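Quick check before the chapter quiz. The format below is the same one you will see on the exam, so make sure you can read both the input and the output lines.
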Amino acid sequence: MKFYYDEDADLSLLRDRTIAVIGYGNQGRAHALNLKDSGLDVVVGLRKNSPNIEEAITEGLKTMEIAEASEAASLIVILIPDEFQASVYEKDIRPFLKDGDVISFAHGFNLLFNKIIPPENVDAVINSPKCIGYLVRENFIKGHGFPNLFGVYRDASGKARDIAIAYAKGIGGTRTGVMESTVKEEAVTNLFAEQSILCGGIAELIKAGFDTLVEAGYSPEVAYFECLHEIKPIIDLFYREGLAEMNRRISNTAEFGEYVSGKRVINEGVREAMKDVLADIEDGKFADRWMNENEGGCREFMEMRAKSAAHPIEKVGDKLRKMMPWLKK
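Here is the expected output.
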């Protein structure tokens, strides 16, 4: 995979455009502020009475209602939650699109599963930082970059790819190097990783380990420390130096236990389940289920959220974290 850096990006492609960032949450705030600091003309599109209006104005940004921002801009970056994008697009964005405009996303979900179908006369691209929004901003301020994927869904102008790379520079991604991908690859791999590893897999593994120790008679406090609290230094080693270096830094006993017991837990059954998860993502079953859940008022989603929040590990963790106030810093 080829990487693209600052010298490969032409920021002048964006200097004559007004960029409307729709949303001011996790990614929206970071993108808007980084683009502004890169010397570009940015407005933030927010719904009327949004609680984020005051924050955006305080941080030096101009705000408009979404339809007004869409009409004023020639590059519209849709950074509201996936489940709201299609309805907002139809009502407040699509009617104002014109020849030469660009719409951009941080996640390919709505493009891949045809929830949003851009008109033929408009470029459509993705720029997907591979980190949470606050790190997109924090790394930019420090002069660092961050891993970022870009891709082209529709190239109406013949310049969509160059515009996508320029946008990556505007938010700071090309400082580290951005990778060219596709809407399908970004969306599928992102959803799969979230569900099977980063959110679903890790959370269920932690809770299962906690339950196993507590049911065997060990104290919840010790189970919390061993199964949840100590995951951070291990993750930090993964993140900074990879699996092999993590193994070099832990005890030989821990490393031997990893080899003889890891595959007993993450066995062929788990691998087959991961393939099922991937299949449900690729064929659109997950996307349809999620959108149907929102149309039905999110009853199942809210029930699952409440059940997860009521797990005993949360009560124990809340008590223990209050003994470590430095964690909040």
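If your answer matched, good. The longest helix spans residues 231-249.
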